[in-house]
Amino acid sequence: MARRKVKLQYIVNKSSRRNTFRKRKEGLLKKVYEITTLCDIKAAAIIYSPFDVEQEVFPSHPEVHEMLMRFQDMSEKDKTKNMVN
Amino acid sequence: MARRKVKLQYIVNKSSRRNTFRKRKEGLLKKVYEITTLCDIKAAAIIYSPFDVEQEVFPSHPEVHEMLMRFQDMSEKDKTKNMVN
DNA sequence: CGTTCTATATATAAAGG
DNA sequence: TCCTTTATATATAGAAC
Fold first, then answer.
1. What is the pTM of this model?
2. Residue A66, domain member (yes or no)
3. What mean pLDDT comes out for the span B67-79?
């Protein structure tokens, strides 16, 4: 979006892809922060990126870990049920 | 945003909060899908909401579970390091 | 490679059904 | 309560540094 509408597909050019990744990651974390604040809920985003040295990025609360634990405890059936595409 | 700028704070009115939650959750999942597609990375969002019957919502791939496993394996120090606020 | 600047695409608050 | 419709706030692609 912005200057030009972009097709929703893999960005081949590496520097463009990297730039888009950085900007969108920032936007995504902001959105997570906002919905968390506005609705007083727990939310987190996990991003695995080949660009960052650190492999996982976590926005949001320490409670995130608790959420993960809860997820781990769910049955496989429930996990599938809660997947959204 | 939209018709009126909204202060970034808890929305007291329940129906408004619920509506905002539903819309923003949808937008958030879309963003996750987009960054995933555009940059060919793995990403997921976890949302704990009192509005949904299901307690956790997961956008994105089956690989998400693998990501969580990797996170579980990280040392406490690394977990803290990867938290972003 | 990372930032900042803007024009434009998107997300979304309110309102209406 | 949920879906549409809009007006407006935000996010962000591309450019320039």
1. 0.81
2. yes
3. 55
